[in-house]
Specification:
This protein is an alpha/beta fold. 35% of the residues lie in helices and 19% in strands. Helix 6 links the parallel strand 6 and strand 7.
């Protein structure tokens, strides 16, 4: 499976919706990728027992089928290490926090961040601090956080956080560096540094795993579903020039 084809398929999988058992039966499909499942009850459809099933991406609750996703732990851990390695000594980490207690990736990111902090150890004349990320559009809360802590680098969720900092007046990366936990291809025009979160790696891993299940005739909901994580490579950007 080529990366180009994997990328194309990964963009198509969000079109799979509830009622997929009927769709599969009518069209003769033997393998299905679910991009997001809001209600796992749809997997109880008996018509899916003749189909290989794989989920791709982050879900709000544990699913009863094999799930391919990025490692939130290693993404959070590596980004702190990367920012520190580039000479930044006062690093403010804005962590995402959902109201849904079942959103396990929130706790996984925190664990990865604290693992990196423990490994780095004490920073002479510096620190790494973790705060809850303000809601999108809440510039005043962001402004207060930056003014209170006075970091030389901020770790945010995505390119939108970088745009918010620039809107607040922090538009000189030499004065305040920035890195994103997830950098998507469409945001590359503003050259944000961080973990690449494009579709290629995820799509290829998902399709390869689905192909394996189909070849082994492993159909329906498995007795022991697995979580498989894929890595996210670091990409440099003008938002983090180093010190």
């Amino acid at each position: 499976m080529s990366r180009k084809l994997a990328s194309a398929v990964s963009r198509l999988v969000p079109r799979i919706v509830a009622g997929s058992g009927w769709i599969a039966e009518a069209s003769g499909i033997t393998g299905m990728i679910f991009r997001y499942i809001e209600d796992p009850a749809i997997l109880e459809d008996r018509r899916l027992n003749r189909i290989a099933l794989v989920a791709s991406g982050i879900h709000h609750r544990k699913l009863p089928i094999d799930t391919i996703r990025r490692s939130a732990y290693w993404m959070a851990r590596s980004i702190v290490q990367q920012v520190h390695a580039r000479g930044y000594r006062r690093i403010l980490v804005m962590q995402l926090k959902h109201r849904d207690a079942e959103m396990e990736d929130d706790m996984t990111r925190r664990a990865g961040t604290w693992s990196a902090i423990e490994e780095i150890g004490r920073i002479p004349n510096g620190w790494i601090r973790e705060v809850v990320r303000p809601k999108s559009g809440d510039l005043e809360s962001r402004r207060r956080l930056v003014a209170k802590h006075r970091p030389d680098a901020v770790i945010g969720l995505n390119a939108g956080d970088y745009e918010a900092l620039k809107e607040m007046g922090y538009d000189n990366p030499q004065q305040l560096g920035f890195a994103a936990q997830e950098v998507r291809p469409k945001s590359r025009s503003i050259t944000v540094a961080g973990n690449q979160a494009g579709p290629d790696g995820m799509g290829a891993a998902t399709i390869d795993w689905l192909d394996q299940r189909m070849r082994l005739a492993q159909f329906g909901v498995p007795n022991q579903p697995m979580d498989l994580v894929v890595s996210s490579p670091w990409i440099d950007g003008d938002s983090l020039p180093g010190q």
